[in-house]
Amino acid sequence: MSHSLIDALERQAVVPALKDLAQLDACLACPGEVVFLLCGDILNMERLLRRLHEAGKKIVVHADLVAGLASKEIAVDFLHRCGADGIISTRPHLVRRSRELGLLSVLRVFIIDSKAMSNLRRESEEARPDAIEVLPGAMPSVIERLCRELHVPLIAGGLLSGKADILSALGAGARCVSTSDSELWAL
After folding, report:
1. pTM above 0.90?
2. Backbone phi, psi, residue 183, to 5°
3. Which tens digit of pLDDT belongs to each residue from 154-186?
4. How does DSSP assign 164-177, residue by residue?
């Protein structure tokens, strides 16, 4: 059974990835209901999530990038308590804990070589994520192959530099793309 936020991601196509709080106002004004939060710390997280929720956003927090958090399962519990709707992580045990708590669980992977490709199946079976975010996202042939081999929705992220890259990733089978380029958020 897929998580309810997967449908929201598919409707959105381009998900803002907020990596700098200076872009918060632009993020709040952008269309779509899901935001990937790639910044913040343990002191401002609850306030930041509340502000995004007040704007009608669902927030998927990259647990590995929150300053002050350790790479332990309790970090996911903390983010859940703060109001996160989902978790992104490169760490399978954090993704697994996210799923146990009913949050959207996204395993972020960097496909840098064939070894990373072959390890992905094992990592995905271990973590059992709701979705996998593949970086860099500007690799349509790799995305197409992963869509055939894995039975988990794929999100393309990283190094998407324009509309053509986004359309290529979506055409290759990615359910949506994530980008920190605020000029692409309204596409």
Report:
1. yes
2. -70, -20
3. 999 999 999 999 999 999 999 999 999 999 998
4. HHHHHHHHTT-SEE
Listed residue (169, 166, 159) closest to 184, CA to CA: 166
Packing angle, helices 92-100 and 114-127, rounded to 10: 30
Helices (H), the chain: 4-12, 24-29, 45-54, 73-82, 92-100, 114-127, 140-149, 163-171
What is the distance between the alpha carbons of residues 172 and 154, in angstroms, rounded to a whole number? Answer: 10
Residue 36: strand, helix, or coil = strand
Give 182's DSSP letter: G
What single-letter amino acid sits at 11? R
Write the single-letter amino acid at 178: S
At 168, give phi and psi (nearest 5°).
-65, -45
Amino acid at 88: I
Q: How far apart are CA 64 and CA 27, in angstroms?
A: 21
Read off the tokens for 167.
């359309």
To which H or E segment does residue 108 belong? strand 104-110
pLDDT in tens, 114-131: 999 999 989 999 999 999
Query: What is the SS3 assignment for 128?
Result: coil
**Token pair belonging to 103:** 């949050």
Structure tokens at 47: 């306030």
